[in-house]
Design goal:
heterodimer; A: 470 residues; Rossmann fold; 16 helices; 17% strand; B: 292 residues; mainly alpha; two-stranded antiparallel sheet; 12 helices; 74% helix; globular
Chain lengths: 470, 292
C-alpha cells in the first residue's frame, strides 16, 4: 500500500469514527424515552421536631389510599460506583453485595410487591463522570432513587446536585468529613451510611490508647494526599488529648499507590517510635506491611492501621500478629452465634463469591446491604403510615429516624445531618488457619457516643473541648 | 552510620528495578527510533504473569521459573507488537508513534484488567521465605539483595551482547546510522525485531522481579514509564551506561530525599532532570539524536 493511500485510509477511518459517533450519539439521545411524570399528592407539611416517627407522620400526612396505589412497574434504583481504575478493587465488592441483596429481596416479592431494577453506572472514581451519570440517571433513565458507592471527591461533588434535583440519594462511602460539616450541612435528600473519616480516626486513636496506654512516641507512614494527612492530623489531635506528653518522632509520606516503601520504613525505624501508624489503605497497606516484615518493623515496634481490618486478608497467613487494625464493619463482629443476620450475610456472600478479596464481605458490602435495606424498610414503614405508595419526601421523613438491623448490628440515621451511626471495630491481628488469613482477635468496639461529634459541631472543636477526668 | 547504609541499600534496590525498565526503553528508542509508550504496560504484564505463575507454583521449587517464563512471554508479545503493529510507522512523523504506542498502552492495560481482574495479586511467601539478614543490628530483606545482584548480572549481559558479539555490533550500527547499515546489506528489520524482543524481555523481567516485594496491580505501568523517562533523559537517550547511572542517581536521591527533604520527595527527580537538561541537554552520556 502506498504512502498516500495509507494516509487517506487513516483519515477515512478517523472521519468515519467521528461521523459514526455523532450519528450514534444523536440516535441514542432521540431514542431515550422522556421521563415519566410523577403524580403529586396534597399533604400538610410537618412542623416541629417529632418524638417518634409513627406519631408525627400519621399526624401530619393526609393519606389518600385510593390515589396512592402501589405502582406495578419495578423500582428503578440508580447505582453509581467505581468499577474501573485503582478504586475498583474496593467498590466492586460493594456492588456484588448490593446485587446479592437485591436478588434476595426480589425473590421474596420485592418492596411491597415491586421488584427492584438496578441501573449501574461506572464513574471510574472521577467526580465529573459521577455527576454526569447522576444527571443522566435522573433525566434519561427516570430512576426513583440513587445509591452511590464512590470516592470522597465524588460524594462531595454529587451532594449539592442531588439536593438540587431532589432525588433521594444514599451515599454508601464517600466518607469525607467535610461532606456534612461544610458542603451539605443541612441535607434533605442526601444520606450517608458508612462511618466518615473523622470517626475512623477518632475511634482508632481511642483504640490505640486503650491497647497501648504506655505508648509515647508515635510515627506515621501515610499516603501523601488529603485523606492520609487528615487522618493523621485527627489521630494526633485525639492522642494529644489522651496522652498529653506524646510526641511525633517521624513522618514518612509515600505517594498514593506507591510500590516501594523501603526508604519510608527505614526512615521511621531510625526514629525508634513506640507505635508506627500506617495511614494507608488497600494494596498500599498490604505492600507496606509486607516490606515491613523484611525490615523487621514488627519486631522493633508496635504497628497500627486506621483501615487495616480487611485489607490484611491480602497477606494471607504471612500477616504479622499483633497489628492493631480498625475498620467500619468487621465480618466476624457481632459474633455469628449471637447475631444470625451477620452469619447469614457472610455465609451467603462466601457461597456466591468465594474468590472475591478474601471471600468475605468488607465494610463496603455492609454499607451496600444497609443502603438497600434502609430504603426497603423506610418505604414499607411509610406505606403503613400513609396507606399508599409514599413520596420521596415521606420516605425521607421516615428514614430520618430509622433504625436498621445490618450485618454489623443496629445502625441509625441521625436526623440533623443524615449521617448513619454505628460503632467502629478494632482488634489485634492473629493468623487463622481456618480462614487462611489474619483475623482480628480479640475484637472490641468504640461506640458512636464516644467518637461522634454532636450534629453541627466540627470534629476539631469537639475534640478540643474534651476534658480529662481528674 | 548503620542507617546511612540502609538508605544506600534502599536506593540501590530502587535503582535496580528502574535500570532494567529504562534500559529496555532506551534500547528500543536508540535503535528503532520509537518512543514506546506501551513499555510500562509490558512491565505491568510481566508483573501479572509472574504473579499468577508464582501463586500457582509457590509450594514447588519451580516457582523460580516464573521469572524467566514471564520475561519470555512478554518478550514474545514485544516481538509481535513490533512485527505486526509498529513496523508500519517506521520513518513516519513522531506524532504517529506517540498515538500508536499510547493507544497500545491503553489497549494493553484494558486487556490486563479483563484477563487478571481489578484486584492486585500478592505473592508474599516468596519474599518472606527468602529471609532477612542482620546488618549491624538492623534487618534487611535478602530478596532485595537478590534483585540488586540479578539486575547487575543482566546489566553485564546487555553490555556483553552489545559490545562483544556480532549481533551487538549490528544493533549498534543500526542505532548509529540506519541508512548506512541498510546500504551495507544489514537487514535492519530483523535488528529492530530483535531490539524489541530484548527491550520487552527487560520490561517483563523487571515486572516479575517487583512482584514478590510489592504486588501486581493496575496502574503501576504509568509510574514506571514516567520514572524511566526521567532516567533516560538524565542519563542520555540511547545510552545503556546513561540508564545505569541515571537510575542509580534517581534511586539514591529518592532514598535520601525521603529522609532529608520529604516535602519535595516527588519533585526532586524532576529537579535533577531539569538541571541536567539545562546544563547538558543531551543527558550525561547521550549522543546527539534525531528521530528517524
Amino acid at each position: 500500500m502506498g504512502e498516500v493511500s495509507r494516509r487517506d485510509f487513516i483519515k477515512g477511518l478517523i472521519g468515519g469514527l467521528i461521523v459514526g459517533g455523532i450519528v450514534g450519539a444523536a440516535g441514542g439521545y432521540v431514542a431515550t424515552p422522556p421521563r415519566e411524570k410523577t403524580v403529586t399528592i396534597e399533604k400538610t407539611v410537618a412542623t416541629g421536631t417529632p418524638k417518634t416517627q409513627t406519631v408525627t407522620v400519621t399526624e401530619t400526612v393526609t393519606a389518600k389510599p385510593s390515589a396512592r396505589k402501589v405502582p406495578s412497574k419495578p423500582i428503578k434504583l440508580g447505582v453509581i460506583t467505581v468499577l474501573t481504575g485503582p478504586g475498583a478493587m474496593l467498590f466492586s465488592t460493594g456492588l456484588k453485595a448490593l446485587e446479592m441483596e437485591v436478588e434476595k429481596i426480589n425473590a421474596q416479592g420485592g418492596i411491597l410487591g415491586r421488584k427492584i431494577k438496578l441501573i449501574v453506572r461506572d464513574s471510574g472514581g472521577k467526580p465529573d463522570k459521577c455527576i454526569e451519570h447522576f444527571k443522566r440517571l435522573v433525566t434519561e433513565e427516570g430512576v426513583d432513587y440513587i445509591t452511590v458507592g464512590a470516592t470522597s471527591a465524588e460524594a462531595c461533588a454529587l451532594a449539592p446536585i442531588a439536593e438540587e434535583l431532589g432525588v433521594l440519594t444514599l451515599i454508601q462511602e464517600g466518607t469525607a468529613t467535610k461532606l456534612f460539616e461544610e458542603i451539605d450541612p443541612h441535607p434533605k435528600y442526601v444520606f450517608r451510611i458508612d462511618n466518615y473519616d473523622a470517626l475512623d480516626a477518632i475511634s482508632h486513636a481511642i483504640a490505640i490508647h486503650r491497647t497501648w496506654p504506655d505508648a509515647r512516641k508515635f510515627a506515621v507512614i501515610g499516603a501523601d494526599y488529603v485523606w492520609g494527612h487528615d487522618e493523621w492530623n485527627i489521630i494526633t489531635t485525639v492522642l494529644k488529648k489522651l496522652v498529653p506528653d506524646m510526641e511525633i518522632v517521624a513522618e514518612a509520606w509515600p505517594p498514593l499507590f506507591a510500590k516501594d516503601y523501603s526508604a519510608h520504613i527505614s526512615k521511621v525505624l531510625a526514629a525508634k517510635p513506640d507505635v508506627v501508624e500506617l495511614c494507608l489503605w488497600g494494596g498500599d497497606l498490604v505492600t507496606c506491611i509486607k516490606q515491613g516484615i523484611g525490615y523487621g518493623l514488627f519486631k522493633q515496634c508496635r504497628v497500627s492501621s486506621v483501615t487495616g481490618g480487611e485489607y490484611i486478608w491480602g497477606l494471607g497467613t504471612e500477616c504479622p500478629e499483633g497489628i492493631l487494625c480498625s475498620t467500619r464493619y468487621y465480618f466476624l463482629y457481632p459474633p455469628w452465634d449471637r447475631w444470625p443476620l451477620n452469619r447469614e450475610f457472610n455465609e451467603e456472600f462466601h457461597r456466591r463469591y468465594p474468590n472475591v478479596r478474601g471471600g468475605y464481605p468488607g465494610f463496603n458490602c455492609n454499607s451496600a446491604y444497609t443502603a438497600i435495606h434502609a430504603l426497603k424498610l423506610a418505604i414499607e414503614k411509610a406505606y403503613t403510615i400513609v396507606g399508599g405508595w409514599p413520596t420521596t419526601e415521606e420516605i425521607i421523613s421516615v428514614m430520618e429516624n430509622l433504625m436498621v438491623p445490618t450485618p454489623g448490628g443496629y445502625r441509625y440515621f441521625r436526623k440533623e445531618d443524615h449521617q448513619m451511626l454505628g460503632y467502629a471495630v478494632s482488634g489485634l491481628t492473629k493468623v487463622s488457619k481456618e480462614f487462611g488469613f489474619a483475623i482480628l482477635d480479640p475484637v472490641w468496639v468504640v461506640t458512636p457516643e464516644e467518637m461522634t461529634p454532636p450534629p453541627g459541631v466540627k470534629w476539631k472543636e469537639w475534640v478540643e473541648s474534651w476534658r480529662r477526668k481528674e | 552510620m548503620m542507617w546511612m547504609l540502609r538508605f544506600i541499600l534502599d536506593g540501590f534496590f530502587y535503582a535496580s528495578i528502574l535500570f532494567l525498565i529504562s534500559s529496555g526503553l532506551t534500547l528500543i528508542f536508540s535503535v528503532a527510533g520509537i518512543i514506546n509508550l506501551a513499555h510500562g504496560c509490558l512491565y505491568m504484564l510481566g508483573a501479572y504473569i509472574a504473579a499468577t505463575l508464582i501463586k500457582s507454583l509457590i509450594d514447588t521449587p519451580y516457582a523460580i521459573l516464573a521469572f524467566p517464563v514471564a520475561a519470555f512471554i512478554v518478550g514474545l508479545l514485544g516481538l509481535f507488537i513490533e512485527r505486526f503493529i509498529i513496523r508500519w510507522i517506521y520513518g513516519r512523523d513522531l506524532v504517529y508513534q506517540l498515538l500508536l504506542t499510547f493507544g497500545l498502552a491503553l489497549i494493553l492495560s484494558d486487556i490486563t484488567r479483563i484477563v487478571f481482574g481489578t484486584e492486585p495479586i500478592y505473592v508474599t511467601k516468596l519474599y518472606i521465605n527468602t529471609g532477612v539478614i542482620d546488618i549491624l543490628g538492623s534487618f534487611y530483606p535478602v530478596y532485595n539483595f537478590i534483585v540488586i545482584i540479578v539486575s547487575l548480572i543482566i546489566g553485564c549481559l546487555i553490555w556483553i551482547i552489545l559490545y562483544k558479539t556480532r549481533i551487538g555490533m549490528m544493533i549498534r550500527a543500526c542505532a548509529l546510522d540506519r541508512e548506512m547499515s541498510e546500504a551495507i546489506g544489514l537487514n535492519t528489520g530483523n535488528v529492530f525485531s530483535l531490539t524489541f524482543l530484548m527491550g520487552a524481555i527487560l520490561a517483563g523481567i523487571s515486572g516479575a522481579l517487583v512482584v514478590p516485594q510489592s504486588a501486581a496491580m493496575l496502574g503501576i505501568d504509568a509510574d514506571a514509564l514516567v520514572e524511566s523517562f526521567i532516567v533516560i533523559v538524565i542519563g542520555g537517550v540511547g545510552s545503556i551506561k546513561g540508564a545505569f547511572i541515571g537510575s542509580l542517581l534517581i534511586g539514591l536521591i529518592r532514598s535520601f530525599g525521603i529522609v532529608f527533604f520529604p516535602e519535595i520527595e516527588l519533585a526532586i527527580a524532576y529537579l535533577v532532570m531539569i538541571v541536567v537538561l539545562l546544563v547538558r541537554p543531551r543527558g550525561l552520556f547521550g549522543r546527539e539524536f534525531r528521530v528517524a
